[in-house]
Specification:
With 666 residues, the chain is of the alpha+beta class. It has 6 domains: 4-90, DNA Primase, Chain A (Alpha-Beta Complex); 104-138 and 153-222, Alpha-Beta Complex (DNA primase DNAg catalytic core, N-terminal domain), CATH 3.90.980.10; 259-384, Dna Topoisomerase Vi A Subunit, Chain: A, domain 2; 393-460, no CATH class; 484-604, no CATH class; 611-665, no CATH class. It has 31 helices and 16 strands. The chain has a 5-stranded antiparallel β-sheet with strand order 1-2-3-4-5. Strand 14 (314-317), helix 15 (323-338) and strand 15 form a beta-alpha-beta unit. Helix 24 (532-538) packs parallel to helix 28. The longest helix is centred in the N-terminal third of the chain and has 21 residues, at 109-129. It is globular. The protein starts with a helix and ends with a helix.
């Protein structure tokens, strides 16, 4: 047993926020931290971490405990294993006890599997470093441009072209070869007895989970020149990859390759980049794309997306440019939509889209693009990734062309996707975008969604149904807070969303950014809520939801608690971000925000009527559709949406692109 004083020392040194932050994206909420619970699926954060008290608690599933409990519950470790892991991380020496194979088995199959994988990883790395035995593996890595730092980062190794090297190594280390067989490292020899290695002449990629455990392997064939005897058997070539089988520690539907290595990059860039294969991950990390991960040889699953959702705000899909990559993109897009994750699709900038193509140029994968000197192109494609719903709409529309039957099938596909969208604002935006892309009335799209979701009209985005939780309004709030005048305000800059609703409709689009920023400041400095300046700011708010949240805060409720309930998730995240928690002079910041709101209000008083411009853009889009100019039609649809939102920066950018394209065409 571990002595009590050592346990107390680990508990005092361990940073519970850092430990949990390996698995959950935490945001500051006063003195505590909040995030999505890793123990049950949820869409609004109810998982709280208190660094002062050293415990976590989920108000959704009631899981709670200290840093030891978290590691034990999430990673399936015993108390001793959790203590050893935390001690190693935070500089507390935990006495080691030499264990016999029998004692290791007594600790459970899971522990034995992790121990065996650790030994196998050490073996493969030792072989790769050997001047003679590891030469094929090092030559392959050099050919792919993978350096020593990334090799070490991913703990890459090489399995020699030997039938018994690993089996003999594990046997010498007193490992249980039955366990190794369950892990897919070795296999039994039915006639000769004993075991032989499953990985031979392969570059071995360990699958490492946050916390450092190796749970499985993906081994790629090196492809050394065949001998004459091998050539005779060329009709039955070896598989490109051999992956670990399902086991107590390896569940491929829940794991992502590169997740442990990509956490810091994901946190720094606020996104995860999803690619198809293991070596795409490795070579892109080598090129500086450190937020890249991949599924493990299977289609993206909802469990994998929820794992990413706990760690980052958005997912960018960068799949291969062939037909398989296109299909994988569409599947991943639908899975992300179902999980209510912001999803974008990267396409090569300036590349004209053609039906059935992938996310990059036809036939181009991100690994090859980078290897060919296209890292800057890929970076631009990722930074300017297209919204997932928009990508879907134009892909489906592009296949439908002018054929009525194809258009009907496209509408059904779109309806099935939209039926998975729970956020009413996102659903309304989908309806608007797809109706324009396909050239049909929005009501037709809503009816199709209603059929796809079981016939209930409430989920189609109609004005009274599907809006989510009831949003109380301040008794003195304006009755049309998000009217057309607000949408066309100069310099408004709404957070991602559709245009303003019609008269007498409740707010459907996201609130203006400047108003959300005000509530983010008040959330981080609640002492300002009762100040005269904050009261003055209340009368400058144009969004009913924000006014209602302010009123509730004046009555003692927490803005941090109200934000996930009252606002779309992308907007609520700004309030929960802790952006202003370190502000040196919050009162001065509040005064500056009030001044900005006052200037904005004066600009709103006489808005420019943009309806004629929007109608002209829509007419040009329909004409481009008729001519079959899909890329121009796509950009014109984006321009119409930007005009409805009053997004001047995007309007100017799109008009410049459209003008440039027309000049090139001439």
């Amino acid at each position: 047993m571990i002595a009590d004083d050592i346990i107390a020392e680990i508990r005092s040194r361990a940073d519970i926020v850092a430990v949990i932050g390996q698995h959950v994206q935490l945001r500051k909420a006063g003195r505590n931290w909040k995030g999505l619970c890793p123990f049950h699926g949820e869409k609004t954060p109810s998982f709280n971490v208190s660094p002062d008290k050293g415990f976590f608690h989920c108000f959704g599933c009631q899981k709670h405990g200290d840093v030891f409990t978290f590691v034990m519950e999430l990673e399936g470790k015993s108390f001793v294993e959790a203590a050893e892991q935390l001690g190693a991380r935070f500089g507390v020496a935990v006495p080691q006890v030499e264990e016999s194979p029998e004692l290791r088995r007594a600790r459970g199959e899971r522990t034995a599997m992790l121990d065996t994988n650790k030994l196998a990883t050490a073996f493969f790395r030792e072989v790769l470093a050997d001047p003679v035995r590891g030469a094929p593996g090092r030559e392959y890595l050099a050919k792919r441009g993978v350096g020593d730092a990334v090799t070490s980062k991913f703990q890459l190794g090489y399995a020699p072209a030997d039938w018994h090297a690993l089996a003999d190594y594990l046997k010498a280390k007193h490992a249980d070869l039955e366990i190794a067989a369950k892990l897919g490292l070795v296999a039994k020899q039915p006639r000769a007895g004993g075991y032989y290695d499953r990985y031979r002449d392969r570059l071995v990629c360990p699958v490492i989970v946050p916390g450092g455990d190796v749970v499985g392997f993906s081994a790629r064939v090196i492809g050394t020149p065949p001998t004459p005897a091998d050539a005779e058997r060329a009709a039955d070539p070896p598989p490109k990859y051999i992956n670990s089988p399902e086991s107590a520690v390896y569940k491929k539907s829940k794991l992502l390759f590169g997740l442990a290595q990509a956490r810091e990059g994901m946190a720094a860039r606020g996104r995860a980049v999803l690619v198809e294969g293991n070596f795409d991950v490795i070579t892109l990390h080598q090129a500086g794309f450190t937020e890249v991960v991949a599924p493990l040889g299977t289609a993206l699953t909802i469990e994998q997306v929820l794992t990413l959702k706990r760690l980052t705000d958005r997912v960018v899909l960068v799949y291969d440019g062939d037909r398989a990559g296109y299909k994988a993109t569409m599947h991943a897009l639908q899975t992300c939509v179902e999980a209510d994750v912001e999803v974008l699709v990267a396409r090569r900038p300036g590349h004209a889209h053609s039906g059935g193509g992938g996310t990059l140029a036809d036939g181009v994968d991100p690994d090859s693009l980078v290897a060919g000197g296209g890292a800057a192109q890929l970076q631009e494609a990722i930074d300017r990734a297209q919204g997932g719903i928009e990508y879907f709409c134009f892909e489906v529309w592009g296949k439908a062309l002018a054929n009525a039957d194809a258009r009907a099938r496209a509408l059904e596909d779109a309806a099935r996707l939209a039926a998975r969208v729970n956020n009413p604002i996102k659903r309304d935006l989908f309806v608007d975008t797809f109706a324009k892309a396909l050239g049909v009335d929005p009501g037709i799209v809503r009816n199709a969604i209603a059929r796809a979701s079981g016939g209930g009209g409430g989920r189609t985005g109609d004005r009274d149904g599907g809006r989510g939780p009831h949003r109380p309004s301040h008794p003195n709030a304006p009755s049309n807070a998000l009217s057309g005048t607000d949408a066309n305000a100069p310099g408004d800059g709404h957070l991602h969303g559709s245009g303003p609703p019609g008269p007498n409709a409740p707010p459907k689009g996201p609130p203006p950014v400047v108003e959300v920023e005000l509530l983010a400041l008040l959330a981080d400095h609640p002492s300002l809520i009762a100040s005269p300046d904050a009261d003055k700011a209340f009368w400058l708010l144009t969004d009913d939801r924000l006014r209602a949240m302010y009123s509730a805060a004046r009555e003692g409720q927490s803005l941090l608690e109200r934000a996930p309930v009252e606002l779309p998730s992308s907007v609520a995240q700004l309030v929960l971000s802790g952006k202003y928690s370190e502000a040196k002079d919050p009162s001065a910041t509040l005064s500056a925000m009030i001044s900005n709101l006052e200037q904005r209000k004066r600009g709103i008083s006489s808005p420019r009527n943009a309806s004629a411009e929007i109608e002209e853009t829509s007419r040009q889009m329909r004409e481009a559709q008729r001519r079959g100019d899909r890329e121009l039609a796509r950009k014109l649809a984006l321009l119409a949406t930007a005009q409805r939102q009053g997004n001047r920066e995007l309007i100017e950018q799109l008009m410049a692109e459209i003008s440039s394209n027309r000049k090139q065409a001439e």
